[in-house]
Design goal:
6-stranded antiparallel beta barrel, conserved putative lor/sdh protein from methanococcus maripaludis s2 fold, alpha+beta, Helix Hairpins, 6-stranded antiparallel beta sheet
Length: about 425
């Protein structure tokens, strides 16, 4: 091998060694990289903490905002009452009598069903009481025996009284005979009372109408067991014990209408005042009635006066239990605020409504109610004109509680103004 070849071989070996040696990294470069990584980690940690605090603050604000119960507001309407007020009334029969059985037996026959018009004394039904009939026969036999024994005792006593004058009998025997007569007379009186009692029970076999009226209920049928305590036996159902009456009879020639008049109109509810009645089934007709009596006392729970209006019903057009509107004239007009019935809160001390102030705090006000129209009600005092009320107060609403208004009252005012325009 020549010298040039050896020189090339050595040069190529040095180049190979230079390729496999790692690059030299300085300590400053490593420190720089570590610092950058730590700064990035710290920045990420600070960003996460700030983000979590922001989210937590937003959650607190949302929770505080949504924790208050949502409410909607409604502005009451001011209504100037006319000289006539309209009040709801309930019609009732002038006389209503539930008829119960006074004896035990089986229904033999009944003569009148619901809707039948009957007169006083008319036979409604007959109850068979064979056991009671036998008891009456036995009681009459006992009365006959007691009467016979009393007659014998009277004859004996009279004889002893005649003989005592001739000293034929002793005074003791005479006194015994007189006492025996008194005892026999007492037995006769007792037997006679028992006969009359059983005769009364037997008379209850015939059920008659106590007054003129119409049958409104019939709770018996042929063969049904009737007892004095109202128990009956129904086929297929065993013994059914109840206190149901066997008939209901109502006198409907005159009907009573009971009306609750607000306290503010109580002075106008005087006896003899004429009232006009309207009914939904007769939209174009009016019926005249007369205020005949009042309770002379205001109910502290509702602040109303109970009055009774009587109306003639000779034709039978008016039905007991019907709803009617009673129109009464008043001497003075009283302004009233009309609020939805859902805004009224019923408490033991009376009626209340809830309002909201500018700080979204609820305030519960006690009010005096007027007429109840079903969906709305009059407020005579306790609420100012233009003061919005909570239309849907929660049951748990308390004085001063924070609420969240979801339906402000201003848009309602604007819409009403636009409608007027």
């Amino acid at each position: 091998m020549s010298g040039e070849d050896q020189a090339r071989q050595q040069a190529s070996g040095h180049h190979a060694d230079a390729k496999h040696d790692p690059p030299v990294v300085s300590r400053g470069s490593v420190v720089t990289v570590v610092v950058i990584v730590l700064l990035i980690a710290a920045a990420l940690a600070v960003f996460g903490i700030v983000r979590r605090k922001h989210d937590s603050a937003e959650l607190v604000n949302y929770t505080n905002a949504s924790s208050a119960p949502p409410v909607s507001l409604d502005i009451p309407k001011l209504q100037q009452n006319a000289s006539e007020i309209v009040l709801p009334g309930n019609m009732q029969a002038f006389t209503l009598a539930p008829i119960y059985a006074r004896t035990t037996g089986y229904v033999k026959i009944w003569y009148h069903d619901i809707g039948s018009r009957v007169h006083k004394g008319d036979l409604l039904a007959i109850i068979e009481t064979p056991e009671l009939d036998q008891q009456l026969a036995s009681a009459k036999a006992d009365l006959a025996t007691a009467t016979s024994n009393a007659g014998l005792a009277k004859t004996t006593a009279d004889r002893y009284k005649d003989l005592i004058g001739n000293n034929a009998v002793s005074q003791q025997d005479t006194d015994n005979a007189v006492s025996q007569l008194q005892a026999r007379n007492t037995e006769v009186a007792s037997a006679a009372a028992n006969v009359r009692r059983l005769e009364e029970l037997v008379s209850f076999e015939r059920i008659v109408a106590p007054f003129d009226g119409v049958i409104t209920a019939r709770n018996i049928d042929i063969g049904q067991l009737i007892s004095a305590d109202g128990s009956t036996t129904t086929a297929g159902a065993g013994t059914v014990r109840s206190s149901r009456e066997i008939f209901d009879i109502s006198a409907i020639n005159t009907l009573r209408v009971f009306v609750n008049v607000p306290q503010v109109y109580a002075p106008d509810a005087k006896k003899g005042v004429t009232a006009t009645l309207t009914l939904p089934q007769y939209p174009n007709r009016e019926f005249k009635g007369k205020l005949v009596r009042t309770s002379d006392s205001v109910d502290p729970a509702t602040r109303t006066l109970l009055v009774e209006v009587d109306v003639e019903n000779r034709t039978g057009e008016l039905l007991p239990g019907s709803y009617t509107q009673v129109h009464l004239n008043v001497s003075r007009a009283a302004p009233a605020l009309i609020v939805p019935i859902g805004a009224v809160i019923l408490e033991p001390d009376g009626l209340h409504v809830a309002t909201v102030d500018e700080n979204h705090r609820a305030h519960i006000l006690r009010v005096t109610p007027g007429r109840d129209f079903g969906s709305t009600i009059e407020i005579l005092s306790g609420l100012s004109e233009g003061q919005a009320v909570i239309a849907n107060p929660p049951d748990s609403l308390t004085e001063g509680e924070e609420v969240r208004v979801v339906t402000p009252s201003k848009p309602k005012q604007a819409s009403s103004e636009e409608a007027r325009r």
